[in-house]
UniProtKB/TrEMBL annotation:
Transmembrane segments: none annotated. Keywords: Magnesium, Metal-binding, Nucleotidyltransferase, Transferase. GO terms for molecular function: glucose-1-phosphate thymidylyltransferase activity; metal ion binding. It catalyses: dTTP + alpha-D-glucose 1-phosphate + H(+) = dTDP-alpha-D-glucose + diphosphate. The keyword Zinc-finger does not apply. The keyword Transferase applies. CDD domains: G1P_TT_short. Pfam families: NTP_transferase. Belongs to the glucose-1-phosphate thymidylyltransferase family. Its cofactor is Mg(2+). This is Glucose-1-phosphate thymidylyltransferase. It comes from the Bacteria.
Length: 291
């Protein structure tokens, strides 16, 4: 399975900050936002990643992550000329996907919780073995901001709706999706919504019509942040700070994950740590190397 992370868009909800800096490069506490979705991909041991980015931000992302070889990965880039909806990233990634299954992530979504990698791996295995689509729901107090999933009394999915004025439930579909090899063709057939965008909800609706959509609820033991607004951006940073200071362990540390995955050796980790030796981040990597 490969992965695509959507890191384009205009970030208008974070204006004026994002007039000059792509939101996915802004810091969530002590590391760029893009590290968090990328770390989740790495925890699933997916090594081939495509970042969908704006043309003006391409060089910044390349400066930060390069081709991924320093992490034992392969990172490629696709240009999104204008934000035309979340489903467009799948179309732009057609050549990269090349008939494979894909883990699709929104670059401003941050996840944390006990056994999260295990749950994600189970979803990945399900799609690899049975095909279809596998997405996740999360209880929110403001569902009108999101794509909303409705269940019947037995827990079966009966409807999906994008940013409804009158939500049928409080369960938002979060920005992490597992899709089989049919997803690109499905995305290509999506027609622009009233907002003029290719909605990811339309892709999920097609899988629902085919009886191939599974939704798992992430319960109270999980934290999910859509860090695209000033409030949620701040909340995400404070959450990461609290967890890291309480545990002494980092969330979303891509170098540590690459090392623990066996993708880079101790010498490579120390080399990466030395590039940040004056920071707590670099000192943390050095501690990991010395364990």
């Amino acid at each position: 399975m490969k992965s695509i992370i959507l890191a384009g868009g205009s970030g208008t909800r974070l204006y004026p900050v994002t007039k000059v800096v792509n939101k996915h490069l802004l810091p969530i506490y002590n590391k760029p936002m893009i590290y968090y979705p990328l770390s989740l991909v790495m925890l699933l041991r997916i090594r081939e990643v495509l970042l969908v980015v704006n043309p003006q931000d391409l060089e910044s992302f390349k400066k930060l992550l390069g081709d991924g070889s320093q992490l034992g990965m392969s990172i490629e880039y696709a240009i999104q000329e204008k934000p035309r909806g979340l489903a467009e990233g799948l179309i732009l990634g057609e050549k990269f996907i090349n008939g494979d299954k894909v883990f699709y992530l929104l670059g401003d979504n941050i996840f944390f919780g006990h056994d999260l990698p295990k749950i994600m791996k189970e979803a990945m295995k399900e799609v690899q073995e049975r095909g279809g689509a596998y997405v996740f729901g999360y209880y929110v107090k403001d569902p009108e901001r999101f794509g909303v999933v409705e269940f019947d009394e037995k827990g079966n999915v009966i409807s999906l709706e994008e940013k409804p004025k009158k939500p049928r439930s409080n369960y938002a579909v979060v920005g992490a999706y597992f899709y089989d090899e049919e997803v690109v063709e499905i995305a290509k057939r999506v027609k622009p919504s009233k907002r003029g965008e290719l909605e990811i909800t339309s892709v999920n609706e097609e899988y629902l019509k085919r009886g191939k959509l599974r939704v798992k609820i992430l319960g109270r033991g999980f934290a999910w942040f859509d860090a695209g607004t000033h409030d949620s951006f701040l909340e995400a940073g404070e959450f990461v700070e609290t967890i890291e200071k309480k545990t002494g362990l980092m969330i979303g540390c891509i170098e540590e994950i690459a090392y623990r995955n066996g993708w880079i050796d101790r010498e490579q980790l120390i080399k990466l740590a030395k590039t940040m030796s004056k920071t707590e981040y670099g000192k943390y990597l050095m501690r990991i190397a010395e364990e």
